[in-house]
PLAC8-like protein 1 (Nibea albiflora), 112 residues
Amino acid sequence: MAVQQQVSSVMTTQGSAAWSTGLFDPYEDKKTCNYAVCCFPCLQCQTANDFGWFFLLPLLDTLACGLVSWKLRSSMRERYDIRGSRVDDCCMICCCYPCVWCQMHRELRIKK
């Protein structure tokens, strides 16, 4: 009887970098904070577009229960080699949805 060993994979990116700004750093970039307050959907669409995605995709987030946000944040972490995991991304989106979008918007502005 042969014994099979299963290897479980954890979706963690051991990136070398951290996010350029913290999740709760609205004062790092007041322009982004004001933009989010005045027109949050516009900020989402611009962020997706700046990342190279179809700009209207974030508007489906309401129907997809945050799935678009989760995938964008995970993709951004992988592209820019940022530490974290998909579970972390999911928790952040569930708890701090607007702050996550502001952080992603700031990250893209810094990386450009």
